[in-house]
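Supplementary Note 3. Input sequence used for the single-chain structure prediction.
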Amino acid sequence: MKKVLLKSRWYVIIVGMLCVGLFSFRKEKTVEDSYDVVVYGGTASGVIAAVSAARDGMKVVVLEPKKHIGGMVSGGLSATDVGRKDVIGGYAKEVYLRAGRYYQTNAKDSAAWFPEPHVAEKILNDMVSEAGVTVLYGQRLKEKGGVKKKNGQIVSVTMEDGKVYSGKVFIGATYEGDLIAFAGASYTVGREAQSLYSEYSAGVRDAFGSQSAYDENGKLLPGVQRTPPGPVGSGDKKTQAYNFRLSLTNDKNNLVPFPKPKGYDPRRYTDLLRNTLGSIEKQGAAEAAAKTFPGLGKVPNNKVDFNNADYVGGSWDYPDGSYKKRAAIWQDHINYVQGFVYFLANDPRLPKEYRDEFNKWGLAKDEFADNNNWPYELYVREGRRMKGDWVMIQKDVVSEMQKEDPVGLGSYGLDVHRVQAWVDEKGILKYEGTPQRTEQERMKHIPYQIPYRVLTPKRTELNNLLVTVCVSSSHVVYSTIRMEPQYMIMGQAAGNAAVLAIKEGKAVQDIDVKVLGDKLRSQGALLEHKLKTLADLPAGKE
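The predicted structure, written as C-alpha cells, is reproduced below.
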C-alpha cells in the first residue's frame, strides 16, 4: 500500500511539474509588449505618425518588416514629388528643413527637397530617436492569424517570430496595406470603372503606341498580352507599373558598374532598343544617353534619381499576393530593372558613343551599402486601397476641393504610369494607363484638402485603426495623393488622431476633427490655401 501511495505521489509531482513547465512555456510565448500606439510599417508616413504621437507623450512602437525605415524617401526616391511646395508644412516640411540644415542650403525656404537616401534615413532615425519612439526591425505580421480583434477593435498583432504587440490604437503605414487586410477591413485593388463614382479618368484608358509587337523573328515580345483590355472606362484588378528608383552617380570615386542580372535576356528590352535608337537618330548618341539622367544637380553629390525602368504588367499580382508570391515578384523586378540599365550600358546594337556616355554613371557606392548598393524598397506605386465609410473620388481633387475635416493639402497632378501592353489586330504594340488630365491640368494650381475621413475604416469594422498610405480613395485620386509628402502629412494627422482617441476614450471615427485641425495647425501643418477656385488665380495662370 505504501509503495502504491509513493508511486501516486511521484506521479502527481511529475504531472504537476510538467503542467507548470507547459504553463510557463505558453506564458512566455504569449507575453505581450504593450504600447499606446502600434505603427505597422516604417515608411516615412509611419515614422511621422509615430513621432507625432510620441511627441505628445504616447508610448509608441514602429514595427518594420525590413531592416531600414523611411520607405521610398530613404529607398531611392530622392527627386521628391513636391507639386506645390506651399502645401507642405508640419512634420513633413520638417524632414526637408532638416535636410536643408544638413546640406547647409541657401534655398529661400531653407529646405533641401531632394536629399540623398542615406541622409533621409539619418534624418528619420534622428526624429524617432529624439521622440523616444521604439523601432523594431524584422517584424513582419504573421500571414494567417496575425491580428487579434475583439468588439470591433484590434487588440494585438502577432509577428512571424511569435512576438505579440498590444496597443490602444493601431496605424497601418505600409505600401501594401497588410494590416488593413489581415484585420478584416474592406479594401480594393485595381481600377474602378468610370460608372462607379462617375470619374471621367477612371478605368481602362485610351491606347497609344506605334511600334511592332513582334521581334525580328516574328515572335511576340515578352510581357505583351494577346488579349486587349476592356473598353475605355471599364474597371479591372490591374495596377500601374512598379520599378526601383536607383541612386546613380557619375563620380568615378563613388561609382559601382551596373551589374548583370541572373537570367539576363535582352529580348525583354526590344521596345526599349527601338525607342532608344529613335532618340539617337533625332538627338545624337551622346545627347540621347545624357538625357536618360534627368535632374542632374538636384540630388546632392553628383547623384540622380533614376526613374525610367517601369516594369509594365509585372505588378498585377503583388498587392494581394502572399509573402512568397510577393518575394518572387520583387526579385523579378530586380532582374528587370538591373537588366534595363545593363542593356543600355552594354548592348552592342547601341552605338559605342551612347554606351560610353551611359557608362559614365553607375550605382552610388555610398548608398544601400548593406544591399549591394541596390535600393531597399520596390516602388509600389499602388497596393491595396482601404474602403472606408467615405471614399475620396475625382471630384474631390478637381472641383470640390474644400472639406469640413481637413488634415492637409495635396496638389500633384493625376499621375498613373503604364498599366499594360498588348498587341492590337494590326500587330502594333499598345500601352494604356495614363489618365485623362484635361481638367486636372487646368486645376493643377488649386490645392485640394485631404479630409480626415480617408484615414478611417468603416465604423462597423474597426474603430481603433488608422491608415496613412493605403487610404480610402479611388484609383484616380490615389494617383495624386500617393506622393511621399502627402503620406507624411497624413501620418502626422493619424498620430495626432490616435492621441485624441486614446485620451478621450473614443473611436477614431468619433474624435473632434476641429480639435484635430487646431492641433495640426499648432504644429505647422497647412490645412488651407489661399487658392480655392479658378477665380482665385491671377490672370493668365489657368
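Residues 2-29 form the longest helix (28 residues). The CA atoms of residues 406 and 451 lie 4 Å apart.
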